[in-house]
């Protein structure tokens, strides 16, 4: 009679066990190059690759299917290509902690599907399942990784084509700035950490790298480190062009200046990285370095006044300089601010400042005083009324608020501010500020010459934002319809040409 | 009867070169007055359309002769160069014919569906 254990030994499992041990010894021949993986690959594929990027696990909720959970990804690279490994909920728990950026892993089993090119550089994406295996390889297990995705040298960052593109670069840390905290755009009560370092390479070019978020605080660098920036974005704002490392990018120290290239345990660094490390150590003391810069704005206000539509003004905000540019718009005032249409100003010709309201309620102290010069309101010297009219100008493309100051408002309204203030004081039903504005300003199309300045404003709720300061410099009595027709015909032509080209 | 004709059918804006397409249809033509004359008992006038074509307009009875250099005629196209006037509107002395002609080309060309 066979004992139960002996029965087990005779079961089919024993034969597969010996097969498994055979599998282990030939494991290297089972490894496939990443570039061979596709939807038609057999389920039991296996790759060996270096982790270049680890995302932060994110919560998701699929409204269509009702699924919810966490999702996380890592990017793996080998000699043939890159692939993104994505994990959901349970697999996030099992596999995600195993991955470390810079280390080599064997990964097997999973569903391969085409990747979403908006978020992912690689062609395909592998979704890990409960059958998947992730094994960390020993540090001595070195593999060659594809390095052609890296930009040859930093000088290439001068190319305008790369602006806003997602790129990979290699450089040597040259300077390190202190950590700063900036208020976030959406919620200025929260701050985001920012650390700026500059990288240089043997093309004698330097580029600033801005690291945002938690990485700014956790990563540390030394001058002379050779680093890789993966999935970084080349951003340009005015004359400032730099590399941004954010949530979806990664910055890795390939060769540390402190430890150097250890001859005993060869590092995972590429040939290029070793080259740069040596170059930096031996570079001359005074090196002429060119900084990567964006295209600077034209200095000074533009001399010619360009005719635009409202939408063109509001959507090309970045074009306007701090000094102010002139633009003409044929538009209709559709709204005006009904209160504070005028203000009291100091009559002193040299001053003209706005007079602040009397600070006390004491009737004897009701005389206005100028805070800029020494003028005081007396029986003989009265303050001037000056216009400050906010108007909403609309055309078929949109609306924009503009201010008409005392130089132009009297022409629009048909009387000076003092007269309008007098009418207001009379408190007549029929003739009042509203009716006058309605008859003179509102709904009368004119061609307005606007002076537009861009300025950055710190708001309590939205952080630092750009605003346009629009003031009316000139206004015609009527719109020149022939000129306006030609302007619009020109725009139609432009659009037609663009459609033909695309 | 005239008003019905004008309001029930659409009256496309055309220039001289489009006339052949609209024979027997009611159209709108803007032109510059060249000559006012009589053909037998019929008062007529010639217009130069926005694309430089010379067109003869047979004036409607009871309608006034054109008073300003630029006019708009709403009428039936008799043949390639003649219109029977239904309605006349004086357009003044300032009119950009080149811009108007570009407009007519857009109306009858790529954006026709917007104007039917």
UniProtKB/TrEMBL annotation, chain A:
Q: In this protein, which residues make up the domain named Replication protein A OB?
A: 164-253
Query: Where's the Replication factor A C-terminal domain?
Result: 326-484
Q: Does the keyword rRNA-binding apply?
A: no
Q: Which UniProt keywords apply?
A: DNA-binding, Metal-binding, Zinc, Zinc-finger
Q: What is this protein called?
A: Replication protein A 70 kDa DNA-binding subunit
Record region (Disordered): 1-27
Query: Organism's domain of life?
Result: Eukaryota
Q: Which SUPFAM superfamilies match?
A: Nucleic acid-binding proteins (SSF50249)
Q: What is the lineage of its organism?
A: Eukaryota, Metamonada, Preaxostyla, Oxymonadida, Blattamonas
GO: which molecular function terms?
Answer: DNA binding
State the family it belongs to.
Belongs to the replication factor A protein 1 family.
Q: Write one Pfam family the protein is assigned to.
A: REPA_OB_2
Is Membrane among this UniProt entry's keywords? no
From TrEMBL, chain B:
UniProt keyword rRNA-binding present:
no
> What domain of life does the native source organism fall in?
Eukaryota
Stored Pfam families: Rep_fac-A_3
Is Ribosomal protein tagged as a keyword?
A: no
InterPro entries per record: NA-bd_OB-fold, Rfa2
Keywords noted in UniProt: Nucleus
Compartmental location: Nucleus
The family classification in the record reads: Belongs to the replication factor A protein 3 family.
Mind telling me what this protein is named? Replication factor A3
Organismal lineage: Eukaryota, Metamonada, Preaxostyla, Oxymonadida, Blattamonas
């Amino acid at each position: 009679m066979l004992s139960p254990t002996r029965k087990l030994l005779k079961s089919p499992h024993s034969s597969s066990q010996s097969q498994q041990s055979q599998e282990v010894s030939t494991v290297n021949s089972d490894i496939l190059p990443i570039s061979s993986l596709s939807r038609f690959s057999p389920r039991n594929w296996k790759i060996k690759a270096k982790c270049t990027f680890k995302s932060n696990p994110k919560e998701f909720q699929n409204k269509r299917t009702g699924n919810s959970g966490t999702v996380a990804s890592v990017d793996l690279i080998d000699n043939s290509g890159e692939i993104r490994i994505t994990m959901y909920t349970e697999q996030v728990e099992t596999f995600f902690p195993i991955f470390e950026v810079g280390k080599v892993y064997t990964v097997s089993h999973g569903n391969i599907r085409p990747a979403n090119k908006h978020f992912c550089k690689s062609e395909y994406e592998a979704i890990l399942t409960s059958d998947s295996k992730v094994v960390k390889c020993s540090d001595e297990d070195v593999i060659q990784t594809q390095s052609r995705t890296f930009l040859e040298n930093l000088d290439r960052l001068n190319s305008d084509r790369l602006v806003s593109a997602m790129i990979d670069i290699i450089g040597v840390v040259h300077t390190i700035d202190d950590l700063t905290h900036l208020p976030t755009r959406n919620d200025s009560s929260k701050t985001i950490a920012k650390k700026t370092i500059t990288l240089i390479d043997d093309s004698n070019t330097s580029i600033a790298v801005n690291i945002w978020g938690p990485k700014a605080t956790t990563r540390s660098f030394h001058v002379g480190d050779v680093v890789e920036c993966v999935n970084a974005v080349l951003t340009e704002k005015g004359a400032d062009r730099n590399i941004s490392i954010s949530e979806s990018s990664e910055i890795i120290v390939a060769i540390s200046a402190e430890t150097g290239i250890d001859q005993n345990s060869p590092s995972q660094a590429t040939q290029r990285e070793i080259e740069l490390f040596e170059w930096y150590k031996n570079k001359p003391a005074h090196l002429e370095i060119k900084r990567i810069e964006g295209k600077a704005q034209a200095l000074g206000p533009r001399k010619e006044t360009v005719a635009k539509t409202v939408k063109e003004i509001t959507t090309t905000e970045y074009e306007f300089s701090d000094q102010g540019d002139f633009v003409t718009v044929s538009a209709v005032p559709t709204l005006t601010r009904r209160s504070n249409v005028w203000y009291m100003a100091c009559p002193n010709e040299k001053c003209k400042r706005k007079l602040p309201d009397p600070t006390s309620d004491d009737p004897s102290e009701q005389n206005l005083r100028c805070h800029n010069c020494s003028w005081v309101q007396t029986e003989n010297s009265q303050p001037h009324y000056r216009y400050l009219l906010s108007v909403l100008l609309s055309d078929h493309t949109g609306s924009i608020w503009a201010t008409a100051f005392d130089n132009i408002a009297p022409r629009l309204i048909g009387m000076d501010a003092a007269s309008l203030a007098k009418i207001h004081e009379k408190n007549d039903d029929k003739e009042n500020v509203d009716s006058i504005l309605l008859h003179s300003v509102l709904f009368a199309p004119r061609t307005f010459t606007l002076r537009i300045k861009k300025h950055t404003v710190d708001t309590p709720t939205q952080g630092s934002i750009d605003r346009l300061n629009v003031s009316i410099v000139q206004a015609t009595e009527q719109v020149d319809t022939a000129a306006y027709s030609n302007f619009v015909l020109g725009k139609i032509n432009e659009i037609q040409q663009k459609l033909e080209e695309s | 009867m005239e008003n019905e004709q004008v309001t029930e059918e659409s009256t496309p804006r055309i220039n001289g070169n489009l006339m052949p397409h609209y024979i027997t249809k009611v159209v709108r033509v803007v032109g510059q007055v060249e000559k006012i004359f009589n053909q037998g008992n019929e008062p007529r006038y010639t217009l130069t359309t926005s694309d430089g074509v010379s067109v003869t307009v047979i004036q409607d009875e009871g309608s006034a002769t054109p008073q300003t250099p630029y006019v708009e005629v709403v009428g039936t196209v008799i043949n390639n160069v003649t219109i029977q006037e239904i309605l006349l509107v004086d357009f003044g002395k300032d009119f950009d014919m080149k811009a108007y002609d570009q407009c007519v080309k857009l109306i009858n060309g790529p954006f026709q569906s917007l104007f039917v």
